[in-house]
Every structure is written in C-alpha cells, then in structure tokens.
Amino acid sequence: MPIFTAPDGTELAYRVSGEGEPLVVLPGGPLRASAYLGDLGGLSGRRRLILLDLRGTGGSAVPADPETYRCDRQVDDVEALRVHLGRERIDVLAHSAGGSLAMLYAARYPHRLSGLALITVNPWALGRPATARDRLAAARLRRREPWFDDAFPAFEAWLGGGGEPAPAVGAFFHGRWDDAARAHEAAADEQTCAEGEDRFLDPAAFDPPALRTALAQVTAPVLVLAGELDGGPRPERARLVADAFPNAEFAVQPGAGHYPWLDDPGRFAGRVGDFLARAARPSAAHQD
To answer: DSSP characters for the chain?
Structure first.
C-alpha cells in the first residue's frame, strides 16, 4: 500500500482502485479500515479511488498521541494526502462518520475542494446526529422482512444500551440482508480501531455554529446521498447536511440502507459517478 506522512509524523496508508482522475475516499465506522468500502459498487470503473486508512486502521500506523484520533485532529491528514498526490484540488467522497471529517476539511480548506459526495452521513459535526427514535422508526419499515421478529428486539435492546449488538442487528443497516451483507457486517469488529472509535466523535471536536458559517461559504458542488431505509441518518435528517451547503443536491437511493453501494451497486455508482462528472466541468468556482 502507498504510504505518506502526516504532519505529526504518523505514517498513513491508502489503497488505490481503478483508473482515471483521483477521488479521495474517507471511510466511516468511525475508524473502520477502508477495506469495507470495496470498490464502491464499481465506482472504480469511473474514477481512481484513493481509499484512505485513517490513523490506527488498516495499513496506517497507530499514532503516538491517542488524542489525535479526534475528528478535527485528522483534517490535516487529508490535506497532507492532497499534497502527497500533487493535486491543486481534490474530489472527496466520505461515508457515514467520515462525512464529519469531510465537512471539517471543506470548512478549513474550501479552496482545495473541487467536489464532495457525502454518503449516508450522520450529521454529528452539525450537532444533529440521528436519535434512537430515528433508528427505530426506520427499523419498523422492515417489519415485513422474514428476519424482523427476531432482529427487532435485539436492535431495540442495543439502542437502549444493552451492550454489544447481536449479529442480527446488522440487518437494519443493509437494504438486502443476504450473505454478502452478513459477511460485510461480520468483518466490522476486526476492521475497526477500538482505541480511537469513541475519541473520533468527541463533542469537543465540533463547533456546529462555526461549522455552519464556514460551510455556507463553500462553493464546490456537493452531493448528499441518503438511503431510503437507513436510520442513521434517515433521509430527512440527511437533508440537514445538504442544507448546510449553498451548492448541494440531495438524493435518496430507493431500497438502500447505510451501505448503498452494496444494496444496488449500479444505481449507486451511476448516481455518484454522474455527479462527479458534472462537478469536474470548469466553472468560475474552480478558478484560482
């Protein structure tokens, strides 16, 4: 895996998939290794994916200072990657908790961003994360599924603080609870940095009013994509993310959960790929 050095000396790794113009990809989890993203449903057929392993995950080193797991402390890691790639500006795609990092990057380095795709992003950074009520309401949409009666009590208990989730809880995060989704869910624990998981979303990392002010000045085009069946966030909460940007479009992928590239790869790659193609067209917003 290619390696570069963060400003604090931590060595960070990334995977490369596909060919063409680079697209920097920030994983969620929080702090889950980028392997879970695969090739994003075939999006690698349209762009060269630069899939960053955030510090402490995948091929990236564990930092000397655990406090640097905090979301705001990793913004300059993304900027260091841009410099390493030798790009004046970058397109960024972020999934789930990675969206908080992407929004902080957009706020701090708006002139380095050419396009931004935010996929099923829970608006932690904006101070409006999904609630247990949101997640339960979305879960009840699945009541006709054959696994619902067994899975829902476990999901409800987990949301109530009932410890580690039972395997069946993962069904509510996927639009299709098939063998591929089960394998995807089963790999999560070993791919996640347990030491940094809670630190990443430390409330001290975020200043929602200041972030909203900064994002209102971001001129790069933004796509916010929600999953119809996702509870974290539900589409109406994901729309709050789109509302924070002046040049954003909002889309809901039918039948999708939290990982829309797994639920309908073709639809996902087509929608995101088309957006990125439009974002690449020259405009006044992209001129120095």
So the answer is: --EEE-TTS-EEEEEEESSSSEEEEE--TTTB-GGGGTTGGGGGGTSEEEEEE-TTSTTSPPPSSGGGGSGGGGHHHHHHHHHHHT-SSEEEEEETTHHHHHHHHHHH-GGGEEEEEEES---TTTT-PPPHHHHHHHHHTTTTSTTHHHHHHHHHHHHTT-SSPPGGGGGGG-SS-SHHHHHHHHTHHHHB-HHHHHHHT-GGG--HHHHHHHHTT--S-EEEEEETT-STT-HHHHHHHHHTSTTEEEEEETT--S-HHHH-HHHHHHHHHHHHHHHTS--GGG--
